[in-house]
Structures are given as C-alpha cells and as structure tokens.
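Archive transcription. Copying these from loose printouts into the bound notebook so they stop getting lost. Printout 1 of 2:
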Amino acid sequence: MKSVLDDLPIRPVGEWAYDKIYRLVQYFGIFAGGMKNRWAALNYVEIGCGPGRCVLRENCLEIDGNALAIISNPNFSSLQKAIFIDASSRVAEILTARIGALGAGSIASAVVGDYSNGAALCGILKDLPEGSLTFIFIDPTECDVPFETIEQIVRDLNTDLLVNVSLGTDANRNLVSAILLLSHVKVREKYEAFLGKPGFCAKPEVIELAKLADHTALRRKFAETYKERLADIGFGYTDIQPVRHYYHLLFASRSEKGLEFWRKSCRIAPDNQQQLFQ
C-alpha cells in the first residue's frame, strides 16, 4: 500500500503496533532527555526498522512507524547519530526518502543490514562516537535474532537494549512443536540460537511443560532463560512489558538507572491510563 501523505509504500500492521511504538517512544523521550547532559553523545540504533510509516489493518489509519516516531520526538535533536537498519534494500531506500523529507539526514541514516550477521552489524556501528551511550531497539517479526549477534554488537558499546520478543505469536504457535517433534529441528535450532542456550529444548522441565501444553509456563521459562543470558553478558537489569497478547518488550540495561527510566516510561499505558501497579 502507499501512503496518502507522501505516496511512498507503507506497511500494514495490526492495531497492537501502536502500543509497541508508544512504549518505544515513551522510553526514548526519558532516555534522551535524562542522559543528554551526562554523556559525550547519545545515539539510537534500530535493527529491523521498516519503512517508517504504517497503516492499521482494522481502520486504515496511517501512523508513524518506529523510525518516524523517533525522529518526530522533541528529544531527537539530542542525538549524535540515529542508525536505522533493515535487511531489505527497498525498505532502506523508502526510509531514506522519508528521512530526507523531514530534514533529519544530518543525524539519521537508513542502511541495509542482516541481523543474522553480527560481524556486519558491528561494521555498521563501528563509527559511533567514543564515550557515547546508545539505545538499541531490536524489532524482528519472530524469535530469530541469534543471541550471538547481540553479544557481538554490545561488546564494545555502552548501551541499553529493548528487544521485541514474539512470545504471543511465534513462540506461542511453534515452541511446543519445536520441543516435541524431531521433524522440527530447524525451528528448535532457531529458538536455541535466539536464547544462546544450546540444549534448552531438551531440558526435562521444558519437555514436561510442552507435553502438558502449558503455553503460559513454557513462554515464561523461555523469557526467563533469555533474561538470564542477558545477565551473563552484563545486562542484569531487565523487565518485560506485554503488548496486548502479541509481543513482549524486553528491556535490558547494565545500569540500574536505565531500568528506573524504563519503569518510569511504563507508568502511563497506551490508552493514557496511569498504571498503579508495577
């Protein structure tokens, strides 16, 4: 589909995408506003960025996607660099046009990069300013970003992470089969690469949950394992926020202050209601 605003292609999404973008922008505003005077520079990196605008399937309402929502935020000007990465050269081309139309090219760029290739992503990020703090949002469509990629890209960066973990879609549909059916070896390998935990699907307690078809407990075990792996590489401050029943946004930081900012950003729900219980 094409946008009625700029005649460039847009991506159809479910209405829950608004909630995800809302959470992202709420945190970005607090991150950039709170950290701009504490670091030599601030950066934003998005992996799996999309073309910048979306249309809701339910009512054909156009909204800013992740990238344009970040660029339109008042704190965007606090950034030294914003790098938007997508595996599709066409998507990068579309987003580049939108970045240019907004006059944001001095800060933002859209580039081609495959999140299964950590070394290539490190090459894209190697010129981020020294002594800077970078907020990285990883937004795949399923649980298929290898943990090794995350290890590689954060190794030499000061960074906070936000990962869109598809617990309510991909994992909910396929995790039980991956554990129990020998024919699903490729899917099993994908999940274990995502977790960075070979043997997860062979654990007796995991197999038992799969046999019981206890999807809720199994997803919880999957998420807790992911958080443990993040802690192994120094990201000990983590929190998960659901986006309806589809996605879960997993925040991870090396700093307690980062987690404090994230929880502050989550106090107001997308429907603008104060959340009383954290």
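Printout 2 of 2:
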Amino acid sequence: MYGHPLQPKPLVAALRSRHVAVAACVAELAAGDPPTEILLIPAGMFRARDGRPKGLPGWRLTPERAREIIRDAESARGDLVIDYEHQTLAAEENGKPAPAAGWFRRMQWRDGEGLVAVDVRWSTRAAEYIRAGEYRYISPVFEYDRQTGEVTAILMAAVTNFPAIDGHSDLAVRAAARFSTQETTMDRNELIAALGLSADATDAQITAALTAGREAVTALTALRAELGVDENGDPKATVADLKAARKPDLSQYVPKAVHDETRAQLAALRANGESAEVDRLIEAGLEDGRIPGQATADWLRQRGLAALKAHLADAPTLEALKGTQTQGKRPQDDDKDGLSAEEQAVCKATGMTVEAFKAAKKTD
C-alpha cells in the first residue's frame, strides 16, 4: 500500500508515528431517548479498567489541547462516525459491513466533565437499540502522545457492550492498521521533518498537519473509488465487465443493409427531383427567350441545376425568340458562320464572338 505514486511518502511516514487507543474509556448510555450529547474523554487523568496505558501514569486531556481538537474537527470536511462494536476497524478482517450508528462533529470542553460531543445524530436503528437498553456504552478511539499520554485527536467512537478491551487484543492491532500506525514511534524532530514543517513547529502546527494528512488520505480513497482503481492504481473492473455494463439499446438502431438501401433511395429521389427542376426551368427559359434554343438548353442541362439557375438569373428575355414559329429551334436551312440562329442570338445577347462561341462548343 505504501509508496504508491498517489500517496505522499512523507505523509505516510508521519501517519505511522501516531499512537491509537481503542475503547480506552467508556461513557454509559441510560435507557430511554438517545442522547444528543455524549462524553468522549473525561477531564483529568484517566486509565482503562484493564490497566492501560502501560508505562504511563495515564491518559490526560488538557483544556488547551481539547480546544485544538475541537477546532480541527470543525474545520474538517466530514463528520466523525459512531459505529457498532468498532466494526469499522474489523471490517477488513471479517468482511462484514460497518453501518453507522450515528455521527457527530461539534464538541465542547466542560471543566470537571471533559470533552463532550454535542451534536450527536443517531440512526433510526441505533436509536431503537438505545431506547431498548440493548447498547449501554460509548467507546471512543483516540490518538495520544506515547511519551506523555496526552490525547491529541478524536478519530471515531462506537456503541458497545464490551468496553475497555484488553490492549493486546486483535481489535487494538486493527485500530493501528486502520489509521496507518505502528507501535513504534519517531521522535519529535523526525515527525516535524516528515511533515515538512519548520524545526520550531508548535504542537498545534503538528496536529494541524496530521489532520490535513488524514483529510488527504480520505480524499485519495474517494478518488480511487471514483476512478475505479485499487490501492495499486489498477482497474477494479475488467474490460469484459465494462462491456457487459454497456449493452446497447437495439431499438435505437437499424441493420446496415436497411440503412444503405434507404440512403440510396433518398439519393435517387433527390436526383429525380433535380432532373425535374432542370426540365421545368429549361422549358420556362425557352418559352420566355432567356434560353435562345435547344442547343443552348442541352448545353445548360449538362452544366447542372446551379449553372442553369445562374444563367437564367442573368440572361435577358429575347423578345425576338418569344412566340416564334420555331420556338427558338434551329431552322434547317440556317447555318450562318456554322452557327444556328439560336447560337447567333446567344452571341449577340452575351457579346461573345463567333470564334469564342465555337471554341467553347469544342471544349464541350
């Protein structure tokens, strides 16, 4: 998992220095309506009933540190979860789901009492359990300084009926793994260097950097889920899976042969329509003299509809050809200069010389 290019190595090293306590202290839930406030960490020095923390007088939380924890939690993007029996920590091991029993984010320090979550929202199921007295205790998971025992962060909590478990149990080990920790620790200077802070960084700055690290890991996990990749950056879904998930709606398609036949029919219809339009325009042009004769009509027909329209738009009406007996058609005995009567009329109307017209005819 560690060393993946998407995961900053200094951040992972810093997270490894954290020390986590599971179910270290317990607040009891009275049967009845589920409380909106729960005690997370008691004021003063405290220990678990199994004797932890070993090698220290106890855990403790000062008012100053509590205020830093409160600020960090309120500036974080998400709420803190309350689950059942610390299943969030055990899910990877036992493969079971880890539903939330509740959520909280806002906390208060109360002298003589301790650190209290003041905006607890319970799920419907958890509320029913608490009303029925089926869950009686709140068990927090928190970070602490291994040298001093001072609590430095609240990570989550759980409703449980087996509080203050033995510190060497599997669940304690899973907590360390879940929050990217080891039982070993680095000294303060190593931690500051790993976090990229200045040598004179304060405890508050170190805590803020660790909080930012947790948020970065959370964001990375969300990004992996969005991209559909595992911790190594490999796709979770195979190509076959993706293809199976994208079955086309066949009702939106037609066979290629039908498509090609339809295109051919449309092309034929367009061609027939254009041919009919050419015939109509030539007939009109012959009628009003804009086309002086059949030879010109045949010549324009070869040029196509666009050229025909352009000619008719610019050509003058030749009154001499309108209503003639020949309707502009070439008399059999009229072949002056090798041109028919209508060809001579075109030359006269357009200003073309006989030679130029003959040259144009040859190129056709």
